[in-house]
């Protein structure tokens, strides 16, 4: 499968660089992981909105979900114009507000999920891990029909259970909101040492650092993750294509 980083900043977008959004594609099927600020605009560099029918939301913080409205209005207007007749499916933690927001727009449907859910979409199978964050949040494990595995942590403090969830992944896209020595547990996020340790213990083949902070020298994140045992570490960049 191919994963394109649409955006990867934590909290708020940079100029022309959105917050979280990852487009995963194989054999003509596409799923989007998260819909943060700027993702609806920038994902169109890679796919026509009328060909994107599945959006998975890890949680409802703005930097992961604020573009729900843009995708809904896009589908509503394109439906009115007769450009698309397929349903736009949103998958997210159960939430009445989001469910009502999505379901009231024609041609859009909300599917709640929990820790035991599995979805199969074309070649993809998607499973979930309940994170430690300030609101209900899930990591996602995407396995394709050839057994290739992409794991996306979304936002979370370090938990041992993440090691099992990310085990043997070909690619781990991990949040890395904090520098080594900063307190991830208190913030509901992980620092670079924790992320490197997670990748090492899980035996992942490639580690991509995402949900990056707006301060400091980002290269220090990669150096700390490597020092903590991470293999093949790189920083996510808007537009980056990852072959999984
Ligand atoms: Zn976030
Ligand atoms: Zn968050």
UniProtKB/TrEMBL annotation:
Keywords: Hydrolase, Zinc. SUPFAM superfamilies: Metallo-hydrolase/oxidoreductase. The keyword Zinc applies. GO terms for molecular function: 3'-tRNA processing endoribonuclease activity. InterPro entries: Metallo-B-lactamas, RibonucZ/Hydroxyglut_hydro. Residues 18-211 form the Metallo-beta-lactamase domain. This is MBL fold metallo-hydrolase. It comes from Salinicoccus cyprini.
